[in-house]
Design brief:
The complex is a heterodimer. By secondary structure, chain A is an all-alpha fold. Chain A has two domains: about 150 residues, no CATH class; about 160 residues, no CATH class. Helix content of chain A is about 75%, strand content about 0%. Chain A is built from 15 helices and no strands. The longest helix of chain A has about 35 residues. Chain A is globular. Chain B is α+β, with helices and mostly antiparallel strands. Chain B has a domain of about 55 residues: 2-Layer Sandwich (Dna Ligase, domain 1), CATH 3.30.1490. A five-stranded mixed β-sheet of chain B has the order 1-20-19-16-15. Chain B has a four-stranded antiparallel β-sheet with strand order 3-2-17-18. A four-stranded parallel β-sheet of chain B has the order 5-4-9-10. In chain B, β7 and β8 form a beta hairpin. In chain B, α3 crosses α13. The longest helix of chain B has 25 residues. The chains are: A mainly alpha, B alpha+beta. Chains A and B meet through α1, α5 and α6 of A and α2, α9, β5 and β7 of B.
Chain lengths: ~325, ~475
Amino acid sequence: MLGRTASSVFWMFRYLERAENTARLLEAGFRMALTRGGDIANDEWRSVIDTLGLKAAYEALYDEYSGTQVCNFVLRDRENGENVMRMFDLARSNARASRTSITGEVWEAVNESWMSLTHLLSRPVRETGLGTVLAMVRRSATLVRGATYGSMLRSEIYHFARAGTYIERADSTARILDVKYYLLLPSLAYVGSTLDTSQWDNVLRSLSAERAFRWLNAGRMDARGIAEFLILDQRFPRSLSFCYKELSENLGRLAEIHGVESQSNAKIIEAMYRFRTTTIDTIFDSGLHEFLTGFNANNQVIANSIAEDYRFFA
Amino acid sequence: MNTPEPNFDEMRQADGSIRPAYVDYCQWLDEQDPSQMRRKGREAENFFRRTGITFNVYGDDDAEERLIPFDMVPRIITGGEWRKLSRGIEQRVRALNAFMHDLYHRQEIIRSGRLPERLFSNNDAWLPQMVGFTPPGGVYTHIVGIDLVRTGPNEFMVLEDNARTPSGVSYMLENRETMMAMFPELFSRIPVQPVSDYPRRLAKSLAACAPDGASDKPMVAVLTPGIYNSAYFEHAFLADQMGAELVEGSDLRVVDGRVQMRTTAGYQPIDVLYRRVDDDFLDPLTFNPESMLGVPGIMDVYRSGGITIANAPGTGVADDKAIYSFMPEIVEFYTGEKPLLPNVPTWRCAEPDSLAYVLDNIAELVVKEVHGSGGYGMLIGPTSSKREIANFKDKLKANPTNYIAQPTLALSTVPIFTKSGLAPRHLDLRPFVLVSPGGIDITPGGLTRVALKKGSLVVNSSQGGGTKDTWVLND
């Protein structure tokens, strides 16, 4: 396949994943605002903007953080070059550019999602309509994922799609954790405060992890356990460790298909080795924030290596 | 607007009875519930939007992607009519290829005095780079679209030849898919010749034109200007259906004397390039130096026999409407036969007598630019205001060689579905013709374009025209 097409497939899935993760963040923020209100709600919206890396753009326009204002900024504001509608535009134009590499089912799933969202986001979203929009974003991502899983040939195209998904997801999980890391530090981890548990709960919700964590821990919650779960648990599909296990499998298959040992594959093997030798204690000892920023820097290096190995650019 | 004389309706005779081609269809239609049919119409639109069959209109910012309206009443041609038509088309396409070869070699037709030299010496589409060069297999026009209009029971005329890069074939295919999805029972009742193997025939025809030295399975690629081009959907659709790569200029490079594409595993040579990019943009080293859509050096590879370009550069000469006016002579010159398909009578404004006639009768005529296409830059006398006519006359007098004129034809009609039931509308037909050293292959069907406004003669999609499925009966 063409290098440019591989790049389009890779980015199409990155943008879809990014849109979905953004919707998840807004949902968690919305819930926090509803249950806590006041300053906590404002702090929460501030941290949503911060996690998305939109602080400067947002503060250039607005003085305060309020729910619908943040949501509209994140979802559809033209002043925000990375709004969710724009991600769907980009996902769809990448899908068009790789139209000959994806199945009709995948294309139709992307195109229909884009049509629905274009309609829903043609006017400012009000508080009453927010749930519908966010659910549509997530349902769209689920639809495309299902169509991809069920209809695509397991050729290199599929592996580029999956690689894009997991690079993006790992980036997102690490960012969310990094913005909230101070909540999870051992010094703050005293049990009993309802404030803390609700904020921990919110960290889990931002990654749709609350149910899985509750189930595994019989309802008990502690900061260290949450960090361990989101970083190292190999069963949870948004944990860093899970994303890398999948990424390594897809990059391994790509190297196999091409019959050459690629840079990107060497780098993921190295990263996987580090995961195997890491425990939550060593992470806390050397600093959670340092671990997460280091992880994301390396994630970017791997993404660049994929682009280089498979000639995304001339 | 008033058409000058009663036109030929392909479904009904003047007394209201149904013509043979439509008997079975109309019988089926009588059994349908009208409200059901209206619902089906909306379904069809959803289907097109969902699958992304849209086209982009140049100069229309608000609507980057628009649908070409689809009408559910098929355009039906009997097997007998089609056989007659295809003989005429084949003859014309054979002549076109021979003409191209002659124009770029000995120019016998000019030496013989049948064609004035100015016609191509002033023609931008004529490329000096092609002189003395014969494309692989001797094929110039690999894919041709012949635009036909009908004025009577056995009267088909050629309105235009599209020898450069005819588009619209994806509509021929998708319109049929849509009809089969909406009305499967129709196709079990009425024997319609299939069109769905067009991509396979195209792939085979292109592969047969590969240069000497290519493998048994030549690498075929479709060159598109990219996702913002008005016909991008079609480019992607054809590449997908043929199993060919869809490439852009930025994917290609000349490496080791071959045109190669950048794949995930490195550069790989291409044998046949079905390009949907105009000549001018094909090679910045040879043509427009600003072009980002082409491949620097591809013309050198082409001339050394390293790649087949379909259609060959320089075939746009035949799309010129002044050349068109000589097609009857061209057909006779190269085939030694009388043309089976007539032209629409055409006045060449370059000739003083014709110009005088056109100026006197402009209110009844259609005047077109010789290089124009897509329904732009033309005047339809009977529907134009006095002021529009006066303005156009000035342009015409200032540069008469730039124009030809034709009578306003009483184009045939076929009904479309409207809110108040069936209503006749004017239409044309573009069959698609494939040329390879193995022969000329015409898919039974084509693109039927239909004017949606009552009385309108303009069928171009860029001017609000729609399309219909085109049936050739298996009788």
